[in-house]
Records
---
Amino acid sequence: VQALYEKHLVSYPRTQCDVLSPDEAKEIGGSLDLLAQFPAYQKLVDTVRSVNPTLSFAKKFIGPLKGHYAIIPVLDFDHDTIPSLSEKESKVFDLIARRLLAALLPPVKGTDQVVQGKIDEQPFRAKLKAISDPGYRQYFHADDVDEAAGSDEQLSTVSFSEGDRLSGELERNQGKTAPPKLFTDATLSTLMTKAHLLVKDAKLRDALKTSDGIGTPATRKAFPDMLIQRGYVKKQRGRYVPTELGSKLCDLLPEQLKSADFSAALEYDLACIADGDPTAKSYQTIISETKQLL
């Protein structure tokens, strides 16, 4: 994404925001002008302008910003020609482009349905969604739908009534419980961003959520690099693997330091100070308590 930003094709990438402000939304035609210069998107751009001539977004795509707005094709591309892209850059740009185009097209509409029945007197229950309007999906090729939607949701068109008899085949899948997968750059970043989900205390959880998790978009990438430089982890085939030294360090660290509650408590204390709470701990107290843990 950084390479695309440097080529002036996408907006500022170091952001966690997934919405636009009303000001950027009004200028989204500039992004479509850029996409129209790519043969792969010309037909979709024409469709968007035809189906949604005002280029309006659903309410969920407009909101208060946390830093910079969501990553989109730039609003003001001012070069005479489109720069050449590597295969990887093209794939990333394609995800950004199609997500924007899908957001400007009608949403998929349907109803959630639950099927309850019996097979040889054994009760079963299945959930599915009956589609009444395919929305933006009708304008994308099947292979592009999930990328544009950003969802793994399975959608089906069904029609049945209570008491119907259904025929079909059943398959039994057998497998073994697998250990958690090793972290990649993406999953580790997501974990740091969503660290508040690991915190039980409501006030601490809210504090960590408000601060957008552990670190910032600009600093999170530095954390695993630092661990590698210090010999605590290594990277193999895109995944982070703890070293013997890292495992020993983990055994030595106090349990409190290995919990997301620790970061949440710090964020809570700092927020209290920023809000002028008279009961807030002082900076000196916070530093002293942290030193005692070490």
---
Amino acid sequence: KALSIGHGALGSPLRSERAATVPADHGTTLPAPSCTSSGLRPLEPLLASIDLIDAAYLIALGEAGGVVPRWQDVPAAARINAASVWRLRCYNVVFPPILVLSYPWLDRHHPDKHGATLRRILPILCACREAALREGVHCTFGVFWDYMSLPQGADRSEAECARFKPGLATMAACYVHPYTYVLSVRTPIPDGDYENTRPYEKRGWCHFELRTASMVKDSLCLWDLSLHKEGTAITFYKCRNTLQSTRPPLTSPEQMARELREKKFTNDADIDVVASLYEQGFVRAFDTFRQYST
């Protein structure tokens, strides 16, 4: 990944709405976790420096054959931030309606220049959106997609740099929360003229994201896209039950630092940054989420 770089195409029209979380398709009753710091509230302060993206916008963009824009070019109506977080407060207080993406960047300057990743995740986005709409016409899911959620590019302004630094420093919280939904895009690299064709498993940023997401994640909330048959529809209930990823063993910050040096980074200077982010996430996981339901 090259979070410090990026020049994206402009987005296409938005269909905006609001947010809910996890109504199961077949009347399944969700367990009430014992975690007292679960839900949306621990994440709301992050929205001062991180934007979530309305799933409705991404669906419209993908169906139109579009390409995701960098943060600077995301339409205002597509952003879920501190001013619009009310859209994510309308249903389940435990499972926040947030989908966090873990995926390989395909080029240094744009992670998905042909829209292949966006098209692959469209069925999952649609499933999340449909689940939210059961709670009302203004409901939606917020999506953390780094390229759109944080300022990008070597041409960032001073204000954008001031926003990027705290956003990068706190992004691990999106992954580590026990009840955010994390989708790991572990499908084969798509065909095309891409600079970086290393698989997910060999990427340093992807390794960090998956291990961070696995610390205290509820078993229903860690999803592996490779378990979904590409091009087929899926319901939210099936996402929660058929895309479940096996959680790797808990890794100490010291061990993670060693493992990261065996992975590939576009910029080797990122290794120490990512190791520090993992350590922060590790501490947050066990300071904030001391009990959780699996």
---
Amino acid sequence: FTHCDGMFTYANKTALNILKYDNLEEFLKNKPFDIIHPDSYDIVKERFHLLYKENKIANPVEEKFICADGSVIDVEVTGVPINIKDKIVVQTAFTDITERKEAERKLKESEEKFRHVVTNTDEILFMIDMNGIFTLSEGKGLSKINLKPGELDGKSVFDLINNYPQIVVGIKTAIDGEKYSDIITIFNYDFEVWYSPNYNEAGEQTGIIGMAIDRTKEIQTEREKQKLSDAIEQSPTAVIITDTDGKIEYVNRKFTEYTGYSLKELIGKTPRVLKSGKTELSTYSELWETISSGK
């Protein structure tokens, strides 16, 4: 559309359709500020000064227009001043960007929700682009490695982890398009880390996404169990473990030496199997009495 001296002078069919006017006559009854939403008043005043007073082009900017039915649309507007018979006529071109702005709004809301979730999670969540630059580093777990949420964003992962070759392997594997997982120890914390390729809607890989979960307690428990198991296996004392029904679940090496039975022969059996002649009667009686009493 065009306007001059504060009045509309023309609008094409596309403009009328977007602004929901049935005909040009109806539209021309308006003044330019009649279709400008109050949120855009200030910016439009500045642009009118540029167009009418300085006779300069007003480059594309986002505004809000009010349609004939009262609905509000988002538009991208460009203004060009044209001198006609000593008057400035402003030719305005605009594009309806309402759907795009709504999509951006929803995306922003989703990103904010996602950011809230990942910021408050106990795990570490990270995203890295194809050049090895962090685009996301969130999660309370970062405090365990002396980092703050977002502190790694914009930094090169390869400049930060030279002392951790396992992490380099995981990241490079995921950048090459393969999933990878590993246990990494950092600052006395054991993290289970997953790396996975990240793709956009077109199916193109844009980088990797990963998660690190603190498994220190579980791993330490397993290590303690293993130490206990090793201690029992190497114990100079015969050890037998049964279930509540008295069925043998485990015997150590000293037990097999003591009784003459192999582990394979004893698993699933009760200590009665020892009453076969290989073991003295007093030894068998003592074992069964101990098992039966729950000691």
